[in-house]
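[09:14] KT: can someone run the structure on this one? pasting the chain below
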Amino acid sequence: MTKLTQHRDVTVTFDIDGRRADAELSHGETLALAQFFKRLNWSEVRGCAVDDDEAYVIRAAVGKLQSALARGGCAPR
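[09:31] RB: done, structure tokens below
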């Protein structure tokens, strides 16, 4: 007998200068985002940034989102 797991949607909330912005993600979207972050490499980040400094900031932000996903139980192998 298989135990069914019920997956819930995920809400991501940003507070930017006192303004709140939410994004609702399905379980599938959350898993896909976690996989994307895992596969994202330096050359792709650098290609989207204007310079190395901005690329390091982007990579740090991605790392924080990866950590939050992992704390929430979504850490792809």
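[09:33] KT: thanks! DSSP finds three helices and two strands in the chain.
[09:34] RB: yep, looked fine to me
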